[in-house]
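To the team - magnesium ion complex, inputs and output below.
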Amino acid sequence: RSKDIGRNSYSFFTKEMNQQVSQRLGIETQLRRALSQHEFHLAYQPVMDAASGQMVAVEALLRWNNKELGFVPPDRFIPIAEETGLIVPIGEWVLREATRQVAQWQRHYGLPLRLAVNVSARQFQGEGLLPLLREVLDETGFAPESLELEITERLILNETASNSEQLLRIHEMGVSLSVDDFGTGFSALSYLKRFPFRVLKIDRSFIRDICTDQGDASLTKAIIAMAHGLGLHVIAEGVEEQSQEQFLMASQCDMLQGYYYSRPLPAADIEPFIQRFQQQANTG
Ligand code: C2E
Ligand code: MG
Ligand code: MG
Ligand code: MG
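Output:
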């Protein structure tokens, strides 16, 4: 009888595993052709200034629509793109496309709109990132001061000389560095002092229950105070309700991002936001 159970759970396990492996393979196969098939586009999500209520930046978020798999969310395909190295050419495309688009908005609307782009640890391997950044900024005429690269604690965790060196060079170019998903890693906090970060983004898992969970409320306040003490700006991610906004404003959070303001939207759909921002800027 115990043999039966053993056999059953074994076959159940392999079936699950087979399914996962073939799903993964399917994604990987399609992912290899996605760039040349023009299957990617970018969504943009507004980042709001807490004090003025104005949109001060957009975060570019990668979207993939495949004709066989349909819409595949980033959390499914980005890890595979990272493991296979495909994130390097894909990340290059993201950087080129996002700076091209936002440079166009800046010119058209005459606004100092900032752009945040997510960069994977894998893109720091090899020596390609810096020359790429220089080339892209040159070609698009994008001001380095308006560009922010979001990296997660994982990159900092595997602190190699090369990573540290590249972060410093990027900072010297005038491009800003942000810590994304802050609070979800397990790294010592001292890196915040050692690396030239400008912005700290509090992960949305802390923001979700900020109004009901005393622990999350305290942690969020402490993170904001610590960041300000280090001279960093703070963005709260995943703001979905007015009550969260109120709490964060009262806690001196600098910038806010989340569905409460807007979901990430295709370029054409984000333009009304920029227009409104332009009108506010003109009327003071
Ligand atoms: P992230 O950089 O932390 O981006 C924020 C994620 O939270 C986005 O998910 C966004 O749609 C979602 N979000 C924003 N506001 C809210 C909210 O109020 N509530 C909830 N529940 N979610 C909200 P998305 O677009 O699915 O991206 C997931 C992750 O994939 C990103 O997390 C980022 O780590 C990665 N990613 C996306 N685009 C790129 C890219 O171009 N390059 C790299 N390397 N990674 C990317
Ligand atoms: Mg991000
Ligand atoms: Mg994040
Ligand atoms: Mg994330």
